[in-house]
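Need a sequence for this fold. Nothing fancy.
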């Protein structure tokens, strides 16, 4: 039984939530997010809260209950506050810069690495080594941040590469010297 699914989602000031059948639409200052809820879950708006309830009693319904509540809550939070992922670049000569809407990175390859963010995602660069990914869709923000990190993952000997802010890179010892 999901404890997460039982919690009602409060609708903050400035956010408008509509339920049409199994489609929940959240509209706020940062945009609009649409969540399709599975038919095993019923969605209602009561007293400025979004309330989800199970229709069936199967094991799959129990699994979908908490997931559906989290997806709707992320949509409501995303249009109000948005989501942010921060990345850091470590390495001599590794840097990033914005060229218009495109993120251009020098990561030790013979060519620059360019990433064009999808609609609804904003990328900014501070001090050539800090990248910030912002947006109202939590999954898209995480996907874009993971795409940027995948272009040069941090290596374990010197820690060079692109990593999430605060991520711990387990380091390995280098070669042992001759005795």
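Here you go.
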């Amino acid at each position: 039984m999901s404890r997460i699914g039982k919690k009602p989602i409060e609708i903050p000031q400035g956010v408008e939530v509509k339920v049409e059948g199994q489609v929940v639409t959240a509209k706020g200052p940062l945009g609009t997010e649409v969540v399709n809820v599975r038919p095993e879950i019923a969605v209602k708006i009561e007293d400025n809260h979004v309330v989800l309830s199970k229709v069936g009693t199967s094991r799959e319904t129990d699994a979908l209950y908490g997931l559906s509540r989290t997806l709707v809550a992320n949509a409501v939070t995303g249009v109000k506050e948005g989501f942010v992922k921060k990345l850091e670049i470590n390495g001599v000569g590794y840097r990033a810069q914005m060229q218009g809407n495109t993120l251009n990175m020098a990561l030790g390859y013979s060519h620059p690495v360019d990433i064009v963010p999808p609609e609804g995602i904003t990328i900014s660069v501070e001090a050539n080594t800090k990248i910030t990914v912002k947006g109202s869709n939590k999954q898209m923000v995480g996907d874009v941040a993971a795409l940027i990190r995948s272009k040069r993952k941090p290596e374990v000997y010197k820690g060079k590469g692109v990593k999430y802010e605060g991520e711990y890179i387990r380091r390995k010892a280098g070669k042992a010297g001759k005795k």
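For context: Residues 79 and 144 are 18 Å apart (CA to CA).
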